[in-house]
Amino acid sequence: MKIAILPGDGIGPEIVAEAVKVLRALDLALEMETAPVGGAAYEAAGHPLPESTLKLAREADAILFGAVGDWKYDTLDRPLRPEQAILGLRKALGLFANFRPAICYEQLTHASSLKPELVAGLDILIIRELTGDIYFGQPRGRRAAPDGPFAGAQEAFDTMRYTRPEIERIARVAFDAARQRSNRVTSVDKANVLETFQFWKDVVTEVHKDYPDVELQHMYVDNAAMQLVKAPKAFDVIVTGNMFGDILSDEASMLTGSIGMLPSASLNDREQGLYEPSHGSAPDIAGKGVANPLATILSAAMMLRFSLNQPEAADRIEAAVRKVLAQGLRTPDIHSEGTARVGTAQMGDAVVNALR
Ligand code: IPM
Ligand code: MG
Question: Which residues have beta carbons under 5 A from ligand 2 (an ion)?
Fold first, then answer.
């Protein structure tokens, strides 16, 4: 089993190092190879996703990804910015199904910005379509406005679009996932305004005919944003497009206390996957040894379960994370009175010890 390790920028290298430590402690036959990505790759090779990194990613069974981005690259041409590395990997490998679970761990109920009773026991799964929508739709660019009250003025535009097969396959992923949970799917759209999302709603409804045992609800994205902070536990599986999923998954992450706890998996139709924490590169705390490595460690667990067919090893990691939280160990992002403040490496070491 070959894993491509792509640490990236900011806190990426620190948190990925802890996940690698945990993977090594499992005594599985894992081959790991590291390559630069994002700003780090731009510095080293002049491109955020060098050909050699992409080749390694293509050949691997799974990719463990840290984070990319730094404000210092904001002035680069778009194709050279760090974010293009993750967008390029998603597109090149066809990683269309993005799983973003939002689980509120018992010990962190009070770290949430919502009232404890609203989030206690929260366990929802956002399934975000990851290779279509306005993120990748062509055409896009700048031009002179061809019509309208400001015809001739400079304008910028993007294109929102989804094909039927793209919607069908992500809908199936969501219904299948719901069958492993409590059989409920909320499909989030903006069918009241957008042609793309009326089509989304129609296609999801059609696919649903094959899943009569699963309950399907449709919800507009603005209402979904509101319901997520009003009564988040009313949701089980949420399925939505690339852009709405980007926004709603950040919102959902905050329900759980810290975005530093949330893993993610991005899968293609060959069970190859890219696994990354849901948070970003946090350049402001990079190199200080204070970042929370648990989202990356939990992403490694998802990798073992989804791409490497090692469910027991995945269970062991998740149990070890619960154990260190029960021991009261906390990185600064989840620290509260009466718990022990630890750094990135200490947290990784504690997970390794808890595995044994
Ligand atoms: C995410 C991030 C990315 C996205 C950025 C870094 C391109 O926000 O994974 O949610 O918008 O998809
Ligand atoms: Mg995002």
Answer: 246
- Same domain as 229, residue 121: yes
Tens digits of residue pLDDT in 146-172: 999 999 999 999 999 999 999 999 999
Residue 320 shares a structural domain with residue 179: no
- Residue 349 appears among annotated catalytic residues: no
Range of the domain at 18: 1-96+268-356
The count of domains in the chain is 2
Q: Which is the closest atom of ligand 1 to the Cα of 249?
A: 10
Active site residue 230: no
Beta bridge partners of 4: 33, 63
Complete DSSP assignment for 204-225: HHHHHTT-TTSEEEEEEHHHHH
pLDDT in tens, 3-45: 999 999 999 999 999 999 999 999 999 999 999 999 999 999 9
195 and 123, same domain (yes or no) = yes
pTM exceeding 0.90: yes
